[in-house]
Amino acid sequence: MDNVFIPFSSSGLPQGSKLSTYLTSRVPDRPELSSALSGLTLSPAGKGRGLGPSARPFTPESTANGSPPQSAAAPAGPATAAGPPGQEAADAAPLFEENVGGTTYYFRAEDAAVQKSAEPPTITPPYTAYVAPPARLSDAQAATHPASFFVSDQLREAILRQQHVLLMQANPQAFPGACPSTRSEDLPTEVDNYHELCLYLPTEVDNYHELCLYLPTEVDNYHELCPLEPPGQPHKSSTFGYVTSAYKATNTKSGQCYCLRRIHGLRLSGTKCLQLVALWSKVNHSNLVTLRELFTTKSFGDNSVVMVYDFLPAAETLMARHFSQPPQLNGFADPFQDPSIPRPYSAQKNAVLRQQNALIPEPLIWSYVIQLTGALRQVHSSGLACRVLDPSKILVTGEYASPGGSDRLHINCCGVLDVLLFDNNATNPLAMVPHYQQEDLVSLGKLLLALSCNSLLAVQRDNFSTSISIVERHYSADLKALIMSLLMPPRPRTIEDVMPLIGARFYQQLDTSGRLAERLEDELGREVQNGRLFRLLAKMSAITERPELNLEPSWAETGDRYMLKLFRDYVFHAVTDEGRPFLDMAHVVQCLNKLDAGSSDKICLMSRDMQNVLVATYAELKQCFQRSFQEVFEETLAKEDAAAS
Ligand SMILES: Nc1ncnc2c1ncn2[C@@H]1O[C@H](COP(=O)(O)OP(=O)(O)OP(=O)(O)O)[C@@H](O)[C@H]1O
């Protein structure tokens, strides 16, 4: 088969034209190709191997056990009684013989049968392509988004939001200390180096508020501090009783992002509490935000303690997710929105009852139960207690699947109370842990009750019976039993005792997680194909329109490269009959995939002046592509070698 057909103006090409250069450059390939093709035969294996320009004569390679290669196993002729030299005459089994590249191989009939059966039962094509999602996924997917070359909009947005948060920086207008240049009028007149600049602190701070807005450029091994809360009047944390701030920061050594939890104005009275920090740093669980280290610093202008946690981009608190929506009734907001404002009993009770309109689906609550108990189990088995099972200290990530499918909880700020309330005089700092573990179980019960009633008011003693009746009416008996057992005596003694109350829900959660993993794998599969096409395009762009290669300015416009340029025009610059741009992603993807696979389909390429038309197969274009990129690549290496020597 001719590898290039020139149906028009085959003999009329002007000497030195781009097409004629290409054709000339292809001539030396033809004898090789035709000799290789002529070697392709259906006769016994061993003849005609080595397709392609770089083909070498076939030499039989011994396998590990010295037998002939499997691919040469087809019996070449009738069984003969003749054995190879040195073969025992007593060996009566008939032998097959086969000549491969001048070497004669002998093998027995049963070996031939084994070799025959060793043929793989299935074959896969030498290319990859976009594949349809599995049937069980496509049913669910069809409802949410149509078939696409890319990941779903929902997942893309979620991932982009996370990456966006990781790149977020402090706004110098809101935090004047964030960028030293914005405080240039306050800077010391002589700053010798950057490090000194980083250590610069405002000398005159009018008030504490201003100090809280000050962001040092560097704190210990962390820089690029970005506050995670909006600037405002500093307030004491309801959980810790201290003013605290959370920052995203980058570790100067690893470049990774962490969350710095700063406790303002705290001076540690000893270093014994670091033992607990060391214990916490060893507790790893997917539903726990890992504590990495603790250090003290004066970089903020006061004595601060900073606890470093893993950073979960785009995480929101359980409080923000479920308890921050103002309760709505007939379009009017509840006037008693703030639970800290005292209100008459009936108003509180009504508020609890009103929240029933937007109750959380039960599968989501069970998903939370399983995640939280999993984390608690890990913490308790490490000899520690959480002490912070509060909606403001539980982070939620993942929102790209149906509710309950992907929402992941992470218990945050573990160890903060251990440090804040550390008793330096205690002989055993872990003595109270069993008591705190019991408190964790009660906190879990309260949290589940609040989630089931969709209101923080639900856990107040006065509202308890109303809240339990809401759970009874809207949820399963299992959920009510779990909440009651956590809140009412006799309580479970350990977190392990809670497991039987979860029962078969655990399997349901496993199934949901498995389905989510399958869906994500399917989405990832599409991006794998996109990544492959991107690499193809990157190589293509490195070839086409290159101003020169190896001092040859016309390199990109001649030979193989000219074919690729025409192909690029065909893929991306196609026009309709009316001359309008033809933009079709399916056309682009199909052409690139066929090029990558080296398809034998033919393609009609037209020069830009429309005077010449070339018909080539994708396989030929692929050869042009590989040869051209190899040239560019080798030139790169040549330059590197020259620079090294
Ligand atoms: N490890 C973390 N990774 C990512 N974001 C976090 C992390 N820890 C906290 N945040 C975010 O920082 C913000 C503030 O967290 P913080 O725990 O201080 O909440 P808070 O509601 O201000 O509680 P408090 O009343 O105790 O001050 C929250 O929006 C939370 O999403």
Automatic annotation (TrEMBL):
Residue ranges of region Knob domain? Answer: 543-645
Question: Which keywords has UniProt assigned to this entry?
Answer: ATP-binding, Coiled coil, Cytoplasm, mRNA processing, Nucleotide-binding
- Going by the entry's taxonomy, the superkingdom of the source organism is recorded as Eukaryota
Quote the Gene3D superfamilies the UniProt record gives: 1.10.287.3700, 1.20.5.5160, Transferase(Phosphotransferase) domain 1 (1.10.510.10)
Instruction: Name the coiled-coil region(s).
Output: 504-542
- Does the record carry Nuclease as a key word? no
What sequence ranges are listed for the domain Protein kinase? 229-507
Q: Where does ATP bind?
A: 261, 392-393
Coiled coil keyword on record: yes
List GO terms (cellular component aspect): P-body; PAN complex
Where in or outside the cell it occurs: the entry states: Cytoplasm, P-body
- Per its UniProt record, what PROSITE patterns does this chain match? PROTEIN_KINASE_DOM (PS50011)
Record region (Disordered): 31-89
Matching entries from InterPro entries are given as: Kinase-like_dom_sf (IPR011009), PAN3 (IPR030844), Pan3_CK (IPR041332), Prot_kinase_dom (IPR000719)
UniProt-listed GO biological process terms:
mRNA processing; nuclear-transcribed mRNA poly(A) tail shortening; positive regulation of cytoplasmic mRNA processing body assembly
The Low complexity compositionally biased stretches are 64-89
Output one GO MF annotation: poly(A) binding
Record-stated family: Belongs to the protein kinase superfamily. PAN3 family.
PANTHER family assigned: DEADENYLATION COMPLEX SUBUNIT PAN3, PAN2-PAN3 DEADENYLATION COMPLEX SUBUNIT PAN3
Q: Function, please?
A: Regulatory subunit of the poly(A)-nuclease (PAN) deadenylation complex, one of two cytoplasmic mRNA deadenylases involved in general and miRNA-mediated mRNA turnover. PAN specifically shortens poly(A) tails of RNA and the activity is stimulated by poly(A)-binding protein (PABP). PAN deadenylation is followed by rapid degradation of the shortened mRNA tails by the CCR4-NOT complex.
Q: What is known of its domains?
A: The N-terminal zinc finger binds to poly(A) RNA. The pseudokinase domain, the coiled-coil (CC), and C-terminal knob domain (CK) form a structural unit (PKC) that forms an extensive high-affinity interaction surface for PAN2.
Summarize the subunit comment. Homodimer. Forms a heterotrimer with a catalytic subunit PAN2 to form the poly(A)-nuclease (PAN) deadenylation complex. Interacts (via PAM-2 motif) with poly(A)-binding protein (via PABC domain), conferring substrate specificity of the enzyme complex.
Q: What is this protein called?
A: PAN2-PAN3 deadenylation complex subunit PAN3
